[in-house]
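Q: Can someone sanity-check these two? First one:
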Amino acid sequence: MSYCKYCSQLPLDNIHRIYHDNIYGIKPKSDNEMFERLSLEILQAGLSWDVVLKKIENIKTAFDNFDIATVSSYEDKKISDLMKNKNIICNNLKIQSIVHNAKEILKIQNNHGGFIIWFDHLNCTNIFEYTKELKKIFKFIGPKIIEEFLKSCGYIKTHDDNCYIKSA
């Protein structure tokens, strides 16, 4: 069963339905939102998406709503506090990667006017090309994380043709 069909059968207040109806396949409106989606895919690696969705509000709070400038300034104390936070996904490599990625996005913003602007100008035509380009800059990414990130951000068609929600 597709994610669209699965979500269509869920109550409106279900975490999967809310994500599907309001986020999945819709282009982010800000660099911070795009950074959040990349970070959530990193946190999800090796886990069920259900785990991320159940913890999403705690994750957003713990990571200062994925404000790129704030996350890029995290030091050892903040990372240590995140590792002790049982309400989020505690994986040192993932957390360190998210901080590193925030620093890289700041550089991209300074050099290209924005993360979304830069991303939209990548000359990639498939997941493997995106992965190759993004691996030059970011940590803890691979083809599956990039595929889900591209789907989440609407760069790859996500919704079924007969879905009640259409990609932006």
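And here is the second, same format, sequence then tokens:
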Amino acid sequence: MNNTVKIPVVRKELLFPFIAITSLFALWGIANDLTNPMVSAFKKVMPELSNVQASLVQFAFYFGYFFMALPAALFIRKYSYKSGIILGLLLYATGAFLFFPAAQFQEYNYFLLSLWIITCGLAFLETISNPLILSLGDQETATQRLNLAQAFNPMGSISGMIMAQVFVMSALRSDDYTTEAFNALSSDELALIRENDLGVISLPYIGLGVIVLIVMTVILFTRIPKTHDNLKMTLSDSFKKLFANKNYVRGVIAQAFYVGAQIMCWTYIFQYVDNLNESLGLDLTATYFNIAAMVSFLVSRWIGTALMMRINPSRLLMYFGTGGALCCAGAIFLPGMAGLFSLVAISIFMSIMFPTIYGIALKNMGDEAKIGSAGLVMAIVGGALMPILQGSILDLGGTGFSDIKLFGYIPEVNFSFILPLICLAVVAHYGYTTYKQSKI
């Protein structure tokens, strides 16, 4: 008889705190996918920006994870998970409210600073929430439990995408003009349009700040269970043990490549669609395809969580990494709508990657899990660096998306997805190596 099937993913007595912590997963999903379209939005409002400069939105946003993850881990080592969550939510709200003065000053760098502060808060939330979810139950079901909690993250992401489309992308006056008509406007007209559009961009962030404060108030009155870490290990011992753990180190690398792939696919789908509209005379709305990708991501995460009851998580990660890489190849080489559908399909295979890598990398850790969690959150810096590299590919022939064609027929924007392909191949290899180790 296989007794492991009787172990619940979440025990009844831990269900309420599990739900409370899981709500945070949706909250940072909103911020992530409200921000992804902003690369395209700022490029429309400030056409003087190059693709690389516009991609600094993602650099500012995801660099906050790298900067703040380790301080967050040290903070909760000294204090508590709950105090770390409250501080993270406070930083999140502060960054969101700073969008108002940024819009008033009409300064791009102020927007970047606001995004950075938001993700300093998100670094606290992710550094805390992931290992806390892993600890809320039996070790045998830890990876399944994290996948279950992470399944609510795309719900927040879909909300963020809808907010971006309804309150920002569809409301930008800059997008109502062709390039020639926009350049023909007087300086006064351009100033009025910019003032309006920067206010439009800031509005959903200010609203999000209010929501975060409400959630913070709820968390203040929620009892967060303490974990059973004895913290006998010193900080230097934790680092030594982590760096000696090849499974963990490779997991951090795989996580950086995965997050880079995710952010590139969900950011540059807008440019991919814009290029199809220009080259084929179509009138597609990129946000709808981004939402389709996220719905696929959400459904596939639920399916992947169920599959892990029967399939080794490392083996499933290997399969999904390979499938994602093949879909990237389709986005590069297939023409027209076939390439776009391949780009959307990548999200099916990315669905389980973050929590699965996380669970595999932290498997059987003790006191060093909090610092180990920080390393995996710092790996989110891949989402800061990779979009800049992809933007540089788009700028090869100019600021357009098809200024030159690689090999005579592949537009720059299509070819740029060679980077997510490489990233997902790295993830597949991590799944392969850890699966081999699990069979020894």
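A (reply): Looked at the second one. Residues 80 and 331 are 45 Å apart (CA to CA). The mean pLDDT is 87.
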